[in-house]
Amino acid sequence: MRDEFEAEGEPAESEQGLDFHRVLEFVRRRRATVLLVAIPLLIPATILPFLPKHYFEATSTVAIQAAPKALDFGGDVLPGAIASAHTPQALESTIVTLVNSDTVLGQVVDQLPAGAPTRMSVFDYLKGRVLGEVYGGNPTVQQDRELRIENLRKQIEVELAGGGTFLEIKARGGSPESATWLANGLADSYVRYLQIQRDDASKRAVTWLNQQIYELRDQIASKESAAAELVAKNQVSPSSFSHEKDASDPLSTLDSQLQTARIDLLGARQRMAELEPRAVNTGNSVKSAETRQMRDDYQTAVHALEAARLRFTPTHPEVVRLEGVVASLRQRLSKAGVSNAPSLTPTEEIEYQQLRAEVARADSKVQALEKARDEMLGDGGVRSEAISRYKRLESELEIDQQMLSVLLTRRNESLLTAADKQSGAYVLDYAVSPLYPAGPSRRKYLALGWAAALAAGVSVGLLRELLDRRVRDPEAVARALGVPVIGLIPQIDDRKTVPEHQTGRARQGAAAEGYRNLRTAILFAMREQKLHSLLLTSAIAGEGKTTTCINLASAFAQMGRRVVLIDADLRRARIDRVFGISRSPGLSEVLEGKARVEECVQRPEKANFDVLTAGGAPDNPSELLASNAFSELIAALKSEYDFVMLDSPVLLAVPDALMLAADADATLLVHRPGSVERRALRRMREDLRRAGARVIGVAFNWVNPADSSVYPSYLESPYLDGPKKKRRARAESS
After folding, report:
1. What are phi and psi of 534, to 5 degrees?
2. Residues 422/424/426/431 CA torsion (nearest 10 deg)
3. Beta strands at 425-429 and 56-64: parallel, antiparallel or unpaired
4. Which of 667, 616, 305, 605 is nearest to 481 (CA)?
5. Where are the beta strands (DSSP E) in 65-154?
6. 337: three-class secondary structure by DSSP
7. N or C end of the chain: smaller count of CB under 10 Å?
8. Are 423 and 198 in contact (CB under 8 A)?
């Protein structure tokens, strides 16, 4: 046997990969903790998925049309910044933002019928306790409307598909009817909003074009009158003022550039005229909070009026009242110099700022070209001032006529667009009532809840496992103690069998064979070291040292050896109770000189070896065991018996076992897996080394055969089965 006590340090445990059997053993060992944590969590995890009500989803599709050409007049002069704002990403962001805006969602909220399904969560949230908590009491009409809009925004999903050609609106409701109503109502509201905006833009475009046409006609008439007056004043025919224009003539080139610049300027101004009323309401143009509130009240009143006209007749008192409110707010906004039109979208705001800069650049270009043309007409190459003035008027009239033709064309296109009612979008597919709920998925949430509960239980079990410093691995225990493992005693399956009587002649099974294997290992050690006395001890009580000692004594006696078993545990003796014999007189009386050993040794009826009980409980057990009388007793028994076995107290609680180890030829440690911590094993090792004990090894007691980390599978054998199992196995094989 190698001397493991010479090494002061403890070798590190070898790192191993994930072992499935170790995982199963961990679950088996911590199953109580896992169940105690998981079962209380499984109850709410099972109930909660069935508490939420089902919700339904409905989807409507809106087709996005290209903007009419008449309404995009001036788009050809947009700079690169505006063109980049019309990219698919910017377009999607603009459309989605518009659908989710308060203006569009407000129309749906205002048109909510009185008999709407009560199971719609978006409307259930509007009344009762929540409103009291949010507003501290009854909310105002405006606050109630804002809360409705916010809840509706949470019930919808808007997505642009088909490369920006389709808009999918998905609405969620507590019933099929509510989901369908929301999806279709929002689609109609969005299309109607675009129609209103396009109608307003068309009206503004036609009004602005008519004004430009009237002004241009007056300008043409004035110039024609000036040209006629110039001809009459000089009393010459108009042909004398005329000149042939050459394509290469610098004046013709300049006139062409001036005409193009004026058309560009006109287009930019038209687009600005469309955005000007709405630009007043954007940014810092609305200076006071009162004015902004007035404009918001106007928009709210307009939406309420639209909803009332859909519900009631034109002469209904509510319709008449709302018409008066709208007219009053419009008048107040007009006096304040604020337009009642909605504010610009972010993309339109960028376009408006760029158009302002473009108008300024185009105006400067027109002025520069006009100045250059005037200078060219006034050069010395022209014969007279009258001819120069006539040519200038003639060139300007030609440009004005072309501009008038362009304006008339644009006005006609705008009128056709307004008459065609193109809104830029239309409902392609209305939502249909869903047949099945869209969620919640109770199976999914039930599975997730169970998985979370089990994960919590396993986590707590793993935490306890990490905090548990007790050692269960035989190799780790052997390294900590510095001795080899020489025996594994499995648990006793038969509850009717007394653990101390496992090695009788008729006994079979894994436990009996475990003790016999341990006996064999001790016999080999006896031959090498000539052992005649063996001390069995353990770290703490309950590890099975007394049971192991009795079964080993019986196993040695079955070989024909003369064996005596001494109960040296003077504090908590058990051997007398196991065999049902008298405790006194015993060891304590022999050591005190009150009795002779021949009088105290007994042979129990169920044993084939002699027993020396502990005797009466002395006041000084440690001193008795450390006396010369005990050493003389052991020497005398070794001369009379082949093998002397001593059952001692535990090591860590009292010093008795260390004193006994000094007189015994060898010491056998009995350990139950997971009974003590690693530091306790280290302390045992140090105490035994200081006492000079000769430890032949450690025997693992009460090992669970199902624990593959402790009890190896190769120890499972059909030889360990009982006679009935053997007969059954032979019958099956035949």
Report:
1. -135, 130
2. -160
3. antiparallel
4. 667
5. none
6. coil
7. C
8. yes
Q: What is the pLDDT of residue 423?
A: 67
Dist CA 727 CA 730 (whole Å): 5
**Res 728: pLDDT:** 44
17: number of CA atoms within 13 Å, CB side?
A: 1
At 340 the three-state DSSP class reads coil
Nearest to 99 by CA among 188, 29, 17, 190: 190
Q: Are 426 and 191 in contact, with CB atoms under 8 Å apart?
A: yes
3-state secondary structure 166-208: EEEEEEEECCHHHHHHHHHHHHHHHHHHHHHHHHHHHHHHHHH
564-583 burial: b if 16+ Cβ within 10 Å, else e:
bbbbbbbeebbbbebbebeb
Task: Dump the DSSP string for 41-89.
Answer: HHHHHHHGGGSSPPBEEEEEEEEEPPPPGGGGTTGGG--HHHHHHTSHH
Helix (H) or strand (E) holding 485: strand 485-490
Q: Which of 595, 594, 648, 583 is nearest to 622 (CA)?
A: 648
Rounded Cα gap, residues 710 and 25, in angstroms: 10
Question: Token pair for residue 226?
Answer: 């000036």
Strands 166-173 and 156-161: antiparallel
Q: Is the pLDDT of residue 135 over 70?
A: no
Please state which CATH number belongs to domain 482-733.
Answer: 3.40.50.300
Residue 155 DSSP label: T
Higher pLDDT, 6 or 685: 685
- For the cut 80, the answer to whether the pLDDT of residue 429 exceeds it is yes
Cβ-based neighbours of 679, under 8 Å, separated by 6 or more? 469
Q: Are 206 and 409 in contact (CB under 8 A)?
A: no
Q: CA of 99: how far to CAs of 90, 107, 231, 583, in Å?
A: 14, 11, 63, 96
Q: Is the peptide bond before 649 cis (omega within 30 degrees of 0)?
A: no
pLDDT tens-place string over residues 215-237: 888 888 888 888 777 777 765 55
Q: In what order do the strands lie in the sheet with 425-429?
A: 156-161, 166-173, 56-64, 425-429
| Averaged pLDDT, 336-349 | 63
Say how far apart CA 131 and CA 128 lie, in whole Å: 6
The domain ranges of the chain are: 20-44+440-467, 237-417, 482-733
Task: Choose among 70, 408, 475, 395: nearest CA to 227.
Answer: 395
Average the pLDDT over 172-189 and give the result.
89
Q: List CB contacts of 632: < 8 A, sequence separation 6 or more.
A: none
Task: Measure the CA–CA gap between 153 and 144, rounded to whole angstroms.
Answer: 14
Please determine, for residue 647, whether its predicted confidence score (pLDDT) is greater than 80: yes
∠ at Cα 97 (93, 102), nearest 5°?
175
Contact criterion met (CB below 8 Å) for 659 and 579: no
Instruction: Please give the share of the chain, as a percent, with pLDDT higher than 70.
Output: 72
Two structure tokens written together for 191:
């299309």
> Looking at the predicted structure, is the pLDDT value of residue 138 above 70?
no
Phi-psi region of 482 (alpha: psi -120 to 50; beta: other; left: phi over 0): left
SS3 for 159? strand
Q: What angle do CA 476, 478, 484 make, to 5 degrees?
A: 145
Torsions phi, psi of 645, nearest 5? Answer: -115, 135
- Of 280-284, 551-555, 567-571, the range with the lowest mean pLDDT is 280-284
User: What span, in angstroms and rounded, lies between the C-alpha atoms of 114 and 166?
Assistant: 32
53: left (phi over 0), alpha (psi -120 to 50) or beta: beta
Who wins on pLDDT, 569 or 278? 569
Of 115-119, 534-538, 670-674, least confident by mean pLDDT is 115-119
Q: Is the pLDDT of residue 12 over 50?
A: no
